Protein backbone atom coordinates (compact mmCIF):
# COMPACT_ATOMS: atom_id res chain seq x y z
CA UNK A 1 0.00 0.00 0.00
CA UNK A 2 1.31 3.43 -0.98
CA UNK A 3 0.66 6.38 1.34
CA UNK A 4 0.60 9.96 0.02
CA UNK A 5 -0.51 13.25 1.52
CA UNK A 6 -4.07 14.22 0.63
CA UNK A 7 -2.68 17.63 -0.36
CA UNK A 8 -0.06 16.31 -2.77
CA UNK A 9 -0.44 17.64 -6.33
CA UNK A 10 -3.03 15.76 -8.36
CA UNK A 11 -0.40 14.59 -10.85
CA UNK A 12 1.33 12.70 -8.05
CA UNK A 13 -1.80 11.24 -6.47
CA UNK A 14 -3.05 10.04 -9.84
CA UNK A 15 0.20 8.20 -10.55
CA UNK A 16 -0.39 5.62 -7.81
CA UNK A 17 -3.50 3.54 -8.31
CA UNK A 18 -5.15 2.58 -5.03
CA UNK A 19 -2.97 4.85 -2.92
CA UNK A 20 -4.11 5.88 0.56
CA UNK A 21 -4.28 9.63 1.00
CA UNK A 22 -3.16 10.63 4.49
CA UNK A 23 -5.64 13.08 6.01
CA UNK A 24 -4.72 16.32 7.69
CA UNK A 25 -4.13 15.64 11.39
CA UNK A 26 -5.53 18.55 13.44
CA UNK A 27 -3.15 17.67 16.29
CA UNK A 28 -0.22 18.79 14.14
CA UNK A 29 0.67 22.34 13.19
CA UNK A 30 1.36 23.76 9.76
CA UNK A 31 1.82 22.25 6.34
CA UNK A 32 3.15 18.90 7.57
CA UNK A 33 -0.07 17.72 9.21
CA UNK A 34 -0.93 15.34 6.36
CA UNK A 35 2.62 14.17 5.67
CA UNK A 36 3.06 10.39 5.83
CA UNK A 37 6.57 10.65 7.25
CA UNK A 38 5.18 12.44 10.30
CA UNK A 39 2.76 9.59 11.03
CA UNK A 40 4.73 6.44 10.29
CA UNK A 41 8.26 5.10 10.34
CA UNK A 42 9.19 2.73 7.53
CA UNK A 43 11.79 -0.02 7.89
CA UNK A 44 13.64 -1.52 4.93
CA UNK A 45 11.62 -4.75 5.02
CA UNK A 46 8.45 -2.76 4.33
CA UNK A 47 7.23 -2.77 7.92
CA UNK A 48 5.81 0.57 9.03
CA UNK A 49 5.06 1.60 12.59
CA UNK A 50 2.08 3.96 12.63
CA UNK A 51 1.50 6.66 15.20
CA UNK A 52 -1.33 6.39 17.70
CA UNK A 53 -3.49 9.27 18.94
CA UNK A 54 -1.47 11.57 21.13
CA UNK A 55 1.94 10.31 20.01
CA UNK A 56 2.57 13.16 17.54
CA UNK A 57 1.19 16.64 18.10
CA UNK A 58 1.91 20.35 17.95
CA UNK A 59 5.20 21.57 16.60
CA UNK A 60 8.85 20.54 16.75
CA UNK A 61 9.99 18.50 18.65
CA UNK A 62 6.69 16.96 19.78
CA UNK A 63 5.83 16.03 16.19
CA UNK A 64 9.00 14.17 15.17
CA UNK A 65 8.78 10.84 16.99
CA UNK A 66 8.30 8.80 13.80
CA UNK A 67 10.40 10.88 11.39
CA UNK A 68 13.42 8.57 11.36
CA UNK A 69 15.55 7.05 8.59
CA UNK A 70 15.96 3.28 8.49
CA UNK A 71 18.73 1.77 6.40
CA UNK A 72 19.83 -1.85 6.13
CA UNK A 73 21.98 -1.67 9.25
CA UNK A 74 21.28 1.73 10.80
CA UNK A 75 18.50 3.65 12.49
CA UNK A 76 19.07 7.41 12.20
CA UNK A 77 17.22 10.02 14.23
CA UNK A 78 17.40 12.52 17.06
CA UNK A 79 17.16 9.71 19.59
CA UNK A 80 16.07 12.02 22.37
CA UNK A 81 12.68 12.33 20.67
CA UNK A 82 12.23 8.97 18.94
CA UNK A 83 8.95 7.25 19.75
CA UNK A 84 9.72 4.37 22.17
CA UNK A 85 7.75 1.83 20.11
CA UNK A 86 9.75 2.73 17.01
CA UNK A 87 13.06 2.53 18.84
CA UNK A 88 12.18 -0.85 20.33
CA UNK A 89 11.43 -2.32 16.90
CA UNK A 90 14.66 -0.87 15.52
CA UNK A 91 16.52 -2.61 18.33
CA UNK A 92 14.65 -5.89 17.70
CA UNK A 93 15.67 -5.70 14.03
CA UNK A 94 19.29 -5.35 15.08
CA UNK A 95 19.78 -1.85 13.71
CA UNK A 96 22.56 0.30 15.10
CA UNK A 97 21.34 3.70 16.26
CA UNK A 98 22.95 6.85 14.89
CA UNK A 99 22.04 10.01 16.76
CA UNK A 100 21.68 13.27 14.80
CA UNK A 101 20.54 16.72 15.82
CA UNK A 102 18.01 17.07 12.99
CA UNK A 103 14.71 15.60 14.20
CA UNK A 104 13.09 15.89 10.78
CA UNK A 105 15.46 13.16 9.71
CA UNK A 106 13.32 11.41 7.11
CA UNK A 107 12.19 14.74 5.68
CA UNK A 108 15.85 15.59 5.24
CA UNK A 109 17.02 12.37 3.57
CA UNK A 110 16.40 10.75 0.21
CA UNK A 111 16.85 7.02 0.82
CA UNK A 112 18.38 5.73 -2.41
CA UNK A 113 18.94 2.19 -1.17
CA UNK A 114 19.78 0.43 2.08
CA UNK A 115 23.19 2.03 2.34
CA UNK A 116 22.95 5.30 0.38
CA UNK A 117 21.25 8.62 1.09
CA UNK A 118 21.07 12.14 -0.30
CA UNK A 119 20.77 15.03 2.14
CA UNK A 120 21.28 18.77 2.44
CA UNK A 121 21.66 18.55 6.23
CA UNK A 122 25.31 19.01 7.27
CA UNK A 123 24.83 17.29 10.63
CA UNK A 124 23.32 14.17 9.11
CA UNK A 125 26.00 14.08 6.42
CA UNK A 126 28.77 14.43 9.01
CA UNK A 127 27.34 11.70 11.25
CA UNK A 128 26.93 9.23 8.40
CA UNK A 129 30.33 9.99 6.93
CA UNK A 130 31.66 8.41 10.12
CA UNK A 131 29.83 5.19 9.23
CA UNK A 132 31.99 3.26 6.79
CA UNK A 133 29.29 1.31 4.97
CA UNK A 134 26.92 4.23 4.27
CA UNK A 135 27.41 6.52 1.28
CA UNK A 136 26.17 10.11 1.42
CA UNK A 137 25.66 12.73 -1.26
CA UNK A 138 25.52 16.24 0.25
CA UNK A 139 23.40 18.66 -1.82
CA UNK A 140 22.35 22.29 -1.63
CA UNK A 141 19.51 23.14 0.78
CA UNK A 142 16.21 24.54 -0.46
CA UNK A 143 14.87 24.42 -4.04
CA UNK A 144 11.87 22.43 -2.77
CA UNK A 145 8.43 23.94 -2.17
CA UNK A 146 6.44 23.41 1.04
CA UNK A 147 3.24 25.30 1.78
CA UNK A 148 3.60 27.66 4.72
CA UNK A 149 7.40 27.44 4.86
CA UNK A 150 10.30 29.15 3.13
CA UNK A 151 11.29 25.82 1.63
CA UNK A 152 10.88 22.09 2.07
CA UNK A 153 13.23 19.12 2.15
CA UNK A 154 14.34 16.88 -0.70
CA UNK A 155 13.71 13.75 1.37
CA UNK A 156 10.10 14.80 1.77
CA UNK A 157 9.93 15.20 -2.00
CA UNK A 158 10.88 11.58 -2.65
CA UNK A 159 10.01 7.98 -1.95
CA UNK A 160 10.54 4.40 -3.07
CA UNK A 161 7.57 2.56 -4.53
CA UNK A 162 7.53 -0.62 -6.64
CA UNK A 163 11.28 -0.52 -7.10
CA UNK A 164 11.33 3.07 -8.36
CA UNK A 165 12.70 6.10 -6.53
CA UNK A 166 10.18 8.87 -7.18
CA UNK A 167 10.75 12.60 -6.89
CA UNK A 168 7.59 14.65 -6.44
CA UNK A 169 8.22 17.36 -8.97
CA UNK A 170 10.75 18.49 -11.56
CA UNK A 171 14.06 17.21 -10.25
CA UNK A 172 15.87 18.79 -13.20
CA UNK A 173 15.27 22.22 -11.64
CA UNK A 174 17.47 21.36 -8.66
CA UNK A 175 20.94 22.96 -8.94
CA UNK A 176 22.61 19.64 -8.05
CA UNK A 177 20.61 17.67 -10.60
CA UNK A 178 23.62 16.19 -12.38
CA UNK A 179 25.25 15.05 -9.12
CA UNK A 180 21.97 13.54 -7.94
CA UNK A 181 21.49 11.62 -11.18
CA UNK A 182 25.06 10.32 -11.13
CA UNK A 183 24.72 9.20 -7.50
CA UNK A 184 21.45 7.34 -8.10
CA UNK A 185 22.42 5.72 -11.41
CA UNK A 186 25.74 4.69 -9.91
CA UNK A 187 23.79 2.50 -7.52
CA UNK A 188 21.62 0.92 -10.19
CA UNK A 189 18.40 2.45 -8.87
CA UNK A 190 15.55 3.32 -11.22
CA UNK A 191 14.09 6.79 -10.66
CA UNK A 192 11.41 9.06 -12.07
CA UNK A 193 10.08 12.55 -11.48
CA UNK A 194 7.15 14.75 -12.45
CA UNK A 195 8.45 17.41 -14.88
CA UNK A 196 5.17 19.33 -15.04
CA UNK A 197 5.21 20.59 -11.44
CA UNK A 198 7.73 22.22 -9.07
CA UNK A 199 9.67 19.93 -6.77
CA UNK A 200 7.35 19.72 -3.74
CA UNK A 201 7.77 18.36 -0.21
CA UNK A 202 4.73 16.11 0.29
CA UNK A 203 6.06 14.24 3.33
CA UNK A 204 7.51 11.39 1.28
CA UNK A 205 5.88 8.66 -0.75
CA UNK A 206 5.81 5.61 1.52
CA UNK A 207 5.04 2.07 0.39
CA UNK A 208 4.06 -0.22 3.26
CA UNK A 209 3.97 -4.03 3.16
CA UNK A 210 3.23 -4.67 6.86
CA UNK A 211 1.57 -2.31 9.32
CA UNK A 212 2.15 -2.03 13.06
CA UNK A 213 -0.36 0.22 14.78
Outline the structure in words.
There is one protein chain. The protein has 213 residues and is of the alpha/beta class. The chain is built from 6 helices and 15 strands. The chain has helices spanning 10-13, 36-39, 84-92, 105-108, 122-129, 177-185, and strands at residues 2-5, 20-22, 40-42, 47-50, 69-70, 74-77, 96-99, 109-113, 116-119, 135-138, 158-161, 164-167, 190-193, 206-207, 210-212. The strands form 5 sheets. A 3-stranded mixed beta sheet has the order 2-1-14, with no helix packed on it. The longest helix has 9 residues, at 84-92.
Mean pLDDT: 97
- What is the N-to-C order of secondary-structure elements (H for helix, E for strand)? EHEHEEEEHEHEEHEEEHEEE
Strand residues, percent: 25-35%
Q: Name the helicity range.
A: 10-25%
Largest sheet: 3 strands, mixed
Low-confidence stretches: none
Amino acid sequence: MVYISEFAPEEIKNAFCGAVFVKNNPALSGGVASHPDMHMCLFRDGTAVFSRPGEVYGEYPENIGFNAVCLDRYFIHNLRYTNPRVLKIAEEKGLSAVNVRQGYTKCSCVIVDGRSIITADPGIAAALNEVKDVEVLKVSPGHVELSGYDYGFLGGASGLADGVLWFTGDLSRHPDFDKIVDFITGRGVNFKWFPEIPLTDVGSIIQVRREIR
